[in-house]
Amino acid sequence: MSLTIYKTNASPPARAVMMVAEILGINYNSYEINPILREQDTPEMTKKNPMRTIPYIDDDGYCLGDSHAIMLYLFDQYGKPEHSYLYPTDKRKRATIHQRLFFDCGVLFPRLRSVMAPTYTGKLTEISNSMKKNIDDSYRMLEAYLSDTLYLADNVITLADLSVITTMSTLHGIHPIDSNKYPKLMKWFSNMSEQEVCKKVNKPGADEHVASLKTFMEINKLNQNKKSKL
Ligand SMILES: N[C@@H](CCC(=O)N[C@@H](CS)C(=O)NCC(=O)O)C(=O)O
């Protein structure tokens, strides 16, 4: 068996894939990619993942991009009966898990990405009010998703939680959850952060990601101030 995960620890979707691999006990190779330097754009990498995003995997010649698709594949390929809680067979629970994964892919992560992209390209000096409004609106949705269950799709942790916690760990670092407005989300976030897999696999990369976004914003501010004085 030879599974390679192309990743960087700061990347939220890469952290989600790494957490699933950790829980399933998969022995994998890591290949570090720096997306700021666009290391994923070489012809060889583009062939493996035409989306040119991180993470992607190569499992004995089978290549797959998008963390959500990868998480489901790893579960199907490597999951054992004791992991069934992560993706139960009940059709409605599965549908809810899918919805939360699509929510992360199509709503939550893009709202973080709208901060990341202009920050890493030197444009953003602080999160704008409209960005904050969009992020808060996502927190409102998550609060609603947590109205009937302790976790996002069930009373136990599923793939949905492993995906969303990675995006939320960066978002909370740059635009903290207001626990008065979103008490269930705050409790979920604290519960998830206490999980061993999150402490070991998610936290170091999340801390790195938050610190790098804040540092880039500071540098952008200095550069823009310098330019305005010229
Ligand atoms: N939906 C994708 C998003 C992946 C993504 O956008 N990753 C970022 C790094 S955190 C990236 O590769 N950015 C470079 C780009 O979008 O070109 C997933 O879940 O894997």
List the helices and strands and how they pair.
Layout: E1 3-7, H1 12-24, E2 29-32, H2 43-48, E3 56-59, E4 62-65, H3 67-78, H4 91-120, H5 129-145, H6 159-174, H7 183-194, H8 196-229
Parallel strand pairs: 1-2
Antiparallel strand pairs: 1-3, 3-4
Helix pairs in contact: 1-3, 1-6, 1-8, 4-5, 4-6, 6-8
What is shown here, in short?
By secondary structure, the chain is of the alpha+beta class.
Q: Your description of this structure?
A:
With 230 residues, the protein is of the alpha+beta class. It has two domains: 82 residues, 3-Layer(aba) Sandwich (Glutaredoxin); 145 residues, Glutathione S-transferase Yfyf (Class Pi), Chain A, domain 2. It has eight helices and four strands. β3 and β4 form a beta hairpin. The site of glutathione (GSH) has 13 residues, from α1, α3 and α4.
CATH class of the largest domain: Mainly Alpha
Structural domain count: 2
Strand element count: 4
How confident is the prediction overall: mean pLDDT? 97
Q: Please report the distance between the alpha carbons of the first and last residues.
A: 58 Å
Order of helices and strands: EHEHEEHHHHHH
* Helicity range: 55-70%
Low-confidence stretches: none
